[in-house]
Amino acid sequence: MKPTLVILAAGMGSRYGGLKQLDGVGPNHEPILEYSVFDALRAGFDKLVFVIRPDFADAFKAMVDHTFGRAIAVEYVYQELSMLPDGYTVPPQRQKPWGTGHAILCTESVITEPFSAINADDFYGANAFQLMGRFLSQAEDADLAQYAMVGYVLRNTLSKFGSVSRGLCHIEHNILQNVVELTKIEPDGDGANYIDSAGQPQPLTANEIVSMNMWGFTPSIFGHLRRLFSQFLDEKGHEPKSEFYIPTVVDTLIAQNQAQVTVLPNDDAWFGVTYREDRPYVQEGVQALIAAGRYPQHLWG
Q1: Model confidence at 12, in pLDDT bands (50, 70, 90)?
Q2: 157: DSSP letter
Q3: β-pairing, 73-78 with 146-153?
Q4: First CA to last CA distance, the chain
Q5: Cβ neighbours around 70 below 10 Å, total
Q6: Taking the alpha carbons of 42, 45, 48, 50 in that order, is the dihedral positive or negative?
Q7: Counting runs of H as helices and runs of E as strands, what totals does the chain give?
Q8: For the purposes of burial, counting CB atoms within 10 Å of the CB of 106, is it exposed (0-12), middle (13-18) or buried (19 or more)?
Q9: CB under 8 Å to 16, separation ≥6 — which residues?
Q10: What is residue 13's predicted lDDT score, i.e. its pLDDT?
Q11: 149, 261 in Cβ contact below 8 A?
Q12: Is 184 left (phi over 0), alpha (psi -120 to 50) or beta?
């Protein structure tokens, strides 16, 4: 069974200052997600599921139809605040989406096969999709919680223009032991630092392996997501800015011995556009890959 690619594109883009999911970085104004789709097709994925918001659905669908819409099966899922389990309501102060775990949960109705979930605004590199495609193609039992994650070196994922959040990974023999979501990570000389829950800076070497939210799952993840999302709503749903992070879900499942996650180390370039100032650097990185023959000048002929 060929795997599906889920692209999470419902984020607000508040730090970027605009709809970065569709902002062009390629020579023909291709957004980052077009390169992810191109790499996924080459790696054997045969269906796309986009998680988007209704307010930009028309523009998003028009872009897909104009580019790769005929090359692969496409589904659209809306992530809305009101998509909650029975018995729960949206708090009056809530405006922020519920997070990546909720976004993936929203796709349950359209997925019955192994799948990878990625962010729309992260450039993962061709090798990441090859690694994940091979892993998911060998998934023999959709009911088993045998998952995967592509890991990146922290220093290759930082922004020069502000702080970022990353899932810090502890790995033994290529198996993920835990992942902790760190926020407000910034470069600091040859290393980095982050701000802990007490508001204090803590050092990092910047050689740590982190999650960039490129995960591989079987459909067994949906039952876990439903259970843990209800628990999240009970504990933190009243907080206006709380988020149900997928790395936190994975870490909980590992701690409960309910999942095993293989780490797929990747040395390919990673680019991201957390801030608008990141965009020229992403454009330069993409152009360098084109010059090296890794991508054609025109993705779709």
Answers
A1: very low
A2: G
A3: unpaired
A4: 28
A5: 9
A6: negative
A7: 7, 13
A8: buried
A9: 23, 121, 273, 274, 275, 276
A10: 46
A11: yes
A12: left
Local confidence band at 275 (pLDDT 50, 70, 90 cut-offs): confident
Contacts of 267 (CB under 8 A, 6+ apart): 127
Environment class of 85 (CB within 10 Å of its CB; exposed 0-12, middle 13-18, buried 19+): exposed
Distance CA 264, CA 50 (A): 24
The Cα–Cα gap between 138 and 141 comes to 9
pLDDT surpassing 60 at residue 116: yes
Contact 228, 213 (CB under 8 A): no
4-291 CATH: 3.90.550.10
The domain locations on the chain are: 4-291
- Round to whole Å and give the CA distance between 260 and 251: 10
Angle at CA of residue 219, ends 77 and 274, nearest 5°: 50
Contact (Cβ atoms closer than 8 angstroms) between residue 20 and residue 9? no
What is residue 90's predicted lDDT score, i.e. its pLDDT? 95
Dump pLDDT digits (tens) for 169-211: 999 999 999 998 898 999 999 999 999 989 999 999 999 999 9
Query: Whole-model pTM?
Result: 0.90
Residue with token string 């965009």: 279
Give the pLDDT score at 142: 65
Question: What share of the chain has pLDDT > 70, as a percent?
Answer: 94
d(CA 5, CA 20): 19
Looking at residue 196, its pLDDT comes to 92
Pairing of strands 260-265, 271-272: unpaired
According to the model, what pLDDT value does residue 158 have?
A: 87
The HSE-up count of residue 171 (CA atoms within 13 Å, CB side) is 21
